[in-house]
Amino acid sequence: MLIHLVCAARPNFMKVAPLYHASKKEQWAQPILAHTVQHYDPNMSE
Q1: Cα three-residue angle 9-10-16, rounded to 5 degrees
Q2: C-alpha span between 12 and 40 (Å, rounded)
Q3: Is the dihedral of CA 34, 39, 41, 44 positive or negative?
Q4: Contact call for residues 40 and 9 (beta carbons, < 8 A)
Q5: Interatomic CA distance for residues 31 and 42, integer angstroms
Q6: Could you give the CA distance from residue 25 to residue 46 in angstroms, rounded to a whole number?
Q7: CA 11, chain centre distance (Å)
Q8: How far apart are CA 28 and CA 11, in angstroms?
Q9: Alpha carbon distance 10, 26 (integer Å)
Q10: Which residues, listed in sequence order, are joined to residue 31 by a DSSP beta bridge?
Q11: Using CA atoms in the order 18, 21, 23, 26, what is the torsion angle rounded to 10 degrees?
Q12: DSSP state string for 1-45
């Protein structure tokens, strides 16, 4: 089952990380992280 996790700004990544890592360990789940590129900063993306 695909699970789409949508993140827009940097604080959202910290909030969704535990859910992403937990679902990645489950065989029934296939998490997909989607970044909307809101407030994108090349220096922060590295």
Answers
A1: 95
A2: 13
A3: negative
A4: no
A5: 24
A6: 25
A7: 11
A8: 27
A9: 25
A10: 3
A11: -140
A12: -EEEEEE-SHHHHHHHHHHHHHHHT-TT-EEEEEE--TT--HHHH
Matching residue, tokens 């909030």: 15
- Token pair listed for 12: 């959202």
pLDDT (tens digit per residue) in 1-46: 999 999 887 788 889 999 999 999 999 999 999 988 777 767 766 6
Report the predicted TM-score, pTM, of the whole model to 2 decimal places.
Answer: 0.71
b (16+ CB within 10 A) / e for 27-37: eeeebeeeeee
